[in-house]
Amino acid sequence: MPSRCARCGDCVRSCKYGALSQDPEGQVQADRSRCTLCRDCLEACQREAIDIVGREFTVEEIVAEAEKERVFFEQSGGGVTLTGGEPLAQPEFTGSLLEALKRRGLHTALDTSGYAPPEAFRRLSEKADLILFDLKLMDDKRHREYTGVSNQLILSNLKVLDNLGKPIWVRFPLIPGVNDDDQNLNAMADFLSDLKSVQQINVLPYHKGGVEKFRRLGREAEFAVFEPPSSEKVEMVIDFFKEKEFQVKLGG
Q1: Which range marks the domain in which residue 226 is found?
Q2: Exposure pattern of 130-158 as b/e (b: 16+ CB <10 Å)?
Q3: Could you give the CA distance from residue 74 to residue 240 in angstroms, rounded to a whole number?
Q4: What gap in Å lies between CA 177 and CA 229, rounded to an integer?
Q5: In angstroms, rounded to a whole number, what is the distance separating the alpha carbons of residues 28 and 30?
């Protein structure tokens, strides 16, 4: 944690790869392209100001963790959700994990942006019991502007998913000034009304939780910060979709 850093430079001196340096004020800077995750800096830091988040798991290890919650799943009707990041970015691992969970009789949900090669998207969707599908913007130009990619593959995959007959929960991240306008809401409602397998729309109000994460990664310049929607705006969007006869939930 940066607040614990004493700017002593021990971590910088411990790094054999030149991944760490200090600015004139003593603030530690990281060149992540040089980092090998050797963890020498963690050992050198006496104040526990550095941490490496995340670890690798095998399919068997994840299934074993899920099995510990089986009693809870059976009582709640829940299961295992593969989310991210984007689980379809690791299609072979995701497929193997879904198959292993299915063999154990555990319910599975796949949370995806839908931005994946059609063959892989279809193959993995068929292995899951429920698909949580993120849908942000209907206009392709605006989608490119805010996400950097076209939405045509995403919309095409959503149609394919609907034809599979898999239960779909559409997740709509509500971002003021980006996708909360009448044009986008109406276009989304029109598109979804033609799909048979959409069970509900989950409205997810934007929050600033990712700002600190990007700051710690040294990538805050890449992160566009917006204001969260007001409670009135959230209620308006929920009421809009309800009037279009969709099942709607806040969050989820």
Answers
A1: 59-250
A2: bbbbbbbbbeeebbeeeeeeebebbbebb
A3: 35
A4: 9
A5: 7
Do the beta carbons of residue 59 and residue 96 sit within 8 Å?
Answer: yes
Helix (H) or strand (E) holding 100: helix 91-103
Do 113 and 20 reside in the same domain of the chain?
Answer: no
Inter-axis angle of helices 118-127 and 91-103, nearest 10: 20
Contact 125, 174 (CB under 8 A): no
Task: Decide if 128 is inside a domain.
Answer: yes
pTM of the model: 0.80
Residues 6 or more apart whose Cβ sits within 8 Å of residue 153 = 114, 115, 116, 118
DSSP-derived 3-state class of residue 170? strand
Pairwise CA distance, residues 248 & 111, whole Å: 17
pLDDT in tens, 10-24: 999 999 999 999 998
Positive or negative torsion for Cα 210, 216, 220, 222:
negative
pLDDT tens-digit readout, 184-238? 999 999 999 999 999 999 999 998 766 666 666 666 666 667 889 999 999 999 9
Answer whether 125's CB lies under 8 Å from 161's CB: yes
Question: At residue 112, what are phi and psi to the nearest 5 degrees?
Answer: -140, 155
Is residue 82 located within the same domain as residue 38?
Answer: no
**Rounded distance between C-alpha atoms, residue 150 and residue 157, angstroms:** 13
